[in-house]
Here is the input.
Amino acid sequence: MSEFPADPNLDLLGEDTPLLEGMRTARAIRRLKPDPVPRALIRKVCEAGTFAPSGGNRQPWFFIAVDDRKKRRWVADRYRPVFQKYIQPAMDRGKRDNFSDRLMRNMRAALHLAEHLHEAPVLLFIAGFTRRDEPQIQALYPCAQNVLLACRAVGLGASFTSLHRAFGEECDRMLGLPENIPSAVMIPIGWPLGRYGRPPRKSIDSKLFFDEFDPSTLQAERPIE
Amino acid sequence: MSEFPADPNLDLLGEDTPLLEGMRTARAIRRLKPDPVPRALIRKVCEAGTFAPSGGNRQPWFFIAVDDRKKRRWVADRYRPVFQKYIQPAMDRGKRDNFSDRLMRNMRAALHLAEHLHEAPVLLFIAGFTRRDEPQIQALYPCAQNVLLACRAVGLGASFTSLHRAFGEECDRMLGLPENIPSAVMIPIGWPLGRYGRPPRKSIDSKLFFDEFDPSTLQAERPIE
Here is the structure.
């Protein structure tokens, strides 16, 4: 359990960031400075996570913020090969099929994060109670989204991954998590090397329908698999 | 596809709401006025949803905003009995086991919403592409959380449910959704009868751990089943 007084200087940080504009510019930040992040600030962004809704207000989440150098290295050493195996086919396909510069840049940033994960000052894991023996992953996602937005508000860089589940059981043991509270999400957090910005998105007018979906829109719309 | 110009008056609405304080006071609003909500405002809160992250930036979401009176009645007539069946055992247990006033109030508000669902001016469904034939429910939850927060920013009341899945296939047909784009979330939206406020949450200090989870905390922590 975290036991330290809130830091009054950090309490005010980010309080004037506007909600809607913050949300529109909460681009995933995957290039991070190795400089430390105060624990009081991690507490602040995690507290924002607790204001997410949950079924029956069960608040199933727990936050484990890893800032210990050895533990971060432990995670990074396992994450790197998993990520490389995941991204390599996509990068090969990208070169072959001429993926857009934006998409290639995105993949390179994710690869950069994987290769530098041990340097990220905080690896935040969000874990949650199972229900009827099943992990309740989706129950943690609104909470994780709040944490990402709170990072945006206070000026921290963050991004979302669940690929650590490839070594999830071992990872959960390392984190001291019992079997009925598996981790679902990992959010590497640090001060951003780059800038916040509006991420590339399709127009809302191709995504929003009133009263009835129009399947003819799907000819233009094709998910990247 | 939605096809109308953005409304410049509504474009500014909510832009000064602060992110962190808005997040902390984004209580679920289940008592709604029947007054109509401009479509341009629904477009605005859905656009905020599109700035959520998604794996490979696939943006799997589609929004179907139902404001047609007959269709809302259609949904409400099916939702009401499903919800009553879901909540009744919890309310009985609450009376027997003396649940807190807060929890009972919460359940009564949810029951109120179910009984008045046909009066909610907009029922917003969020649907998303399946992947390898599986619904990607969790992929839509960060998007749904953005929509809830955007509603908070502009002053709309909203709450989150997935219980409509009990009649999901029939509902998706009514919405014109193909089988590979099932709806996952329903968000009833309207002008709030009550006020925003800080929802009851456990202290972050019972939820946050540095470097290692402490299982001794679980004796105090018991999820409401």
